[in-house]
Amino acid sequence: MKGRMIGSSTFEKVCSHVNSFVLIVVLVSSSIIASASTSTEEADALITWKATLQKEASQLSSWTLLPNTSTNLNSSTGPCTWFGISCNLAGSVIRINLSNSNLDGSLHEFSFSSFHNLEYVDLSKNSFFGTIPTQIIDLSTKLIYLNLSINHFSGKIPPQIGLLTNLEALCLNNNELDGSIPPEIGQLRSLNVLALDSNSLNGSIPLEIGNLTNLVELYMYNNSLIGPLPTQIGNLKSLKSLSLGKNNLVGSIPTSLCGLVNLTLVDLSQNQLSGSIPEEIGNLKSLIVLQLSENKLNGSLPTSIGNLTQLEVFYVRDNQFSGSIPQEVENLMKLTTFRVARNQLTGYLPQNICKAGLLRNFTANSNYLIGPIPKSLRNCTSLLRVRLDGNQLTGNISEVFGVHPDLYYINIGNNTLYGELSPNWGRSSRLTNLEFGGNDITGGIPSEIGNLTELHVLDLSSNHLVGEIPKELGRLTYLVKLTLTNNQLSGGIPAEVGSLTSLDYLDLSKNKLSKSIPGCIGNFSNLFYMNLSHNEFSQGIPAQIGNLVQLSVLDLSHNHLSGDIPMEFMKLQSLQTMNISHNNLSGNLPATIFEKLHGLLYVNIAYNRFWGQVPNIKAFQDAPIEALEGNKGLQPFQPQTTDKHVSQRSRNVVLMIIFPLSVVLAVVLLFALMGLIIFKGKKRNSREEHNVNLYSTISTFDGKKMYEEIIAATENFDAIYCLGRGGFGSVYKALLPSGKTIAVKKIHALCDGNLTDQKEFFNEIMALTEIRHRNIVKLCGFCSSNRHSFLMYEYLEKGSLATILSKEEEAKELDWSRRVNIIKGVAHALAYMHHDCSPPIVHRDISSKNVLLDSDYEAHVSDFGTAKLLKLDSSNLTGFAGTYGYVAPELAYTMKVTEKCDMYSFGVFALEVIKGNHPGDFITCALSPSEANILLKDVLDQRLPAPTGQVQDELIKIVTIATACLHANPQSRPTMLMISKRLSSSIVQIPITVTPGELVIGSKP
């Protein structure tokens, strides 16, 4: 019985083991069958998708299913060995990596539901297109990495992407996605990396972004995102990289961002952010890169940036920062890049900014900085790029810099540096740009400059250099631009300069260069601009000049050149501007030459010895009398028909020219010149009736296409699109097909024979193309044709200041702070025109109607329709110009326009902005000797509450400055540079007294 019991137990155990074995076999078999089934499903899905790809996918040649036959029973029929595919131990696909495989197609035929174990998908760097399918949510169970970057995916980001809750990395950057960022993205709480940059995403950043508390890297730059930075970003405590640059974000930098102490990169550049940098920025002690450039940030740079001891890159250029650069910057011992250009910074540069010897990029140009260049730069051998131009820096240039073997770019122009150029510059052999123009440098040009064989730009203009041009400059064979204008250089142009065959810009004007113009200039086959004017060159114009087939501007005026115009001139097919006036040139003006110059627009041959028939081409027909006078032997155009109609304006020009002559001579010349104008007017009318070439000058834009787009956008300049009218033209709003809105100024009667308008039109273009300033309206392009002529400007949303001041509610939006900033902006713009442009530019019509405001109420000076380029220490004799009530009183009897006329107009303008309307009789009262003081309340706009505190101090300063500008004696008015500096200063240096209930301003500044 006992034995049986044992046998029974043994039997039961054996049965149990057998059952277990059978179960294992069944489970393994089931697993193998399931795995084989899954693998087959995945393989079929991949093969099906491959067939939809549009390119022959050579990388996918391994994607082939082998038939399951007796000869390949041991061969794998699954995808695990295929290119770009990885599997788990069970043979199921877990990774697809087809990055940079030259694939072209969409994902719409991809069966996401066939991949149950997929964890990793990388399809980046291909040519995939179409939308991101919503079926991607079928991967929601295990997917942790999804990279579709650098393709052509379009459409919106599907909200369903928020269901991929295990994702740790989502990279959709560098595609063509649009629409807003779905708030559902906030459900991806496991995300470490979110890259949505370089698309066309719009809308605001969803607040739900603050839910991604595991996020380490966030990239949304280069989109069209709007709205403020959400304060919820402060929840992302693990964040190391934040890149939101190149969007349209507004508002201030949230203080909550300064609590993200792990940040190493912050890029908020190229937005519309305003306000100041929070002082708490100093908490980000791990920060390596801080990029805040091209915003509207203001205030002072916080001293706390000195706490960012790991900082290597500091970019805040193109903002509105004021005050001085904190000395604490010297604490940044790892600093390699420091860029604060184009702000309103004052004070001194940090002297020990390169104390650690690591500084490579140092740009602080276009500010109001004073004092010496940092002494630490002398031994800063790490320097690669330096721009300090456009300030008021002082010091001896020979003591500031040493030897910088890696320096490739330096521009310290437009300062007040003195001393001589050191021969050591020849040892900075990597230099491509050496720009020292607009200083007080003396001595000669060191021959060692010729060792800089990589040099592309050499600008030593507007200094006091003497001696000859070194022949060693001929070794600079990569030189593209050479400008030595406005010095005291002597001798001839060395023949070695002919080796500079890469030159496209040459300006040697306003020196004492002599001898003949060498024939070697004919080697400059790429030259488009050549100015040798205001020298002492003699003999003839070399025939080799005809080799300059790219030449657009030629100025040989004010020399002692003689002889005929070479026949080789006819080869200058690209020539648009030719000035050979004030020489001793002679002979006739051969039609065979000038008829070949189809692009010629402007000529000046005055004061030579030319004779014979004036060429019958447009440039001569449109030339003002001043451009032809002084050639006794010139004959007028031959009449083709008669015309009894001569414009009254042309008669006035003739009368103004001959009035000082004797009565008898006046009568004779009057009839002769009137006859000349009649013949020209009739000839022009006849020509224009048959002229079908509408595009005589197109610049910047794709000529005919842009012309047609503007005509269509304004419905042929229909009045409904007109924003305003002036004496020089009417301004229209044009919405282009690209979505860009521009302002188009259509010139009145430019092609009706009115020579003065023609000249002013081109003066305006020439002036504006040289201007680059935040407070001056940007010229986008221009067109001149027989049908229409117009200028194209950036469109400014708020319109003219005059219109805003005239409307009750809109004027109230201009609070005292905004008005002060408007006045400062106009002052900075005029200071730039008067003191930074060469030659200086006088506006001639400063008034509230010619100041436009953008959406942030920042001022932009407009309307250079009457602008003239002035030489230093000179004035222009011209007709009456300006707006009634703003014109300087001396213009009525002198007719001489100088920058002092702009000063008077600025004074009127400043008072108008404060008063809310034209100051009128207040001007007379302010200038009266019997008026010792001015009551502040009398010049305040009563629509606004009374100013207090700092704003009140600013207004006191402005009223005092404006009163000084209205001085009857032009020479007693301050300069625009003085005013700009004074307005930028925080010190109120104005005599003031307080009487009961009134604030009194001293009338004398």
Automatic annotation (TrEMBL):
Belongs to the polygalacturonase-inhibiting protein family. GO terms for cellular component: plasma membrane. PANTHER family: LEUCINE RICH REPEAT FAMILY PROTEIN, EXPRESSED, MDIS1-INTERACTING RECEPTOR LIKE KINASE 2-LIKE. The chain crosses the membrane at residues 653-679. It is found in: Cell membrane; Membrane; Secreted, Cell wall. The lineage of its organism: Eukaryota, Viridiplantae, Streptophyta, Embryophyta, Tracheophyta. This is non-specific serine/threonine protein kinase. It is a single-pass type I membrane protein.
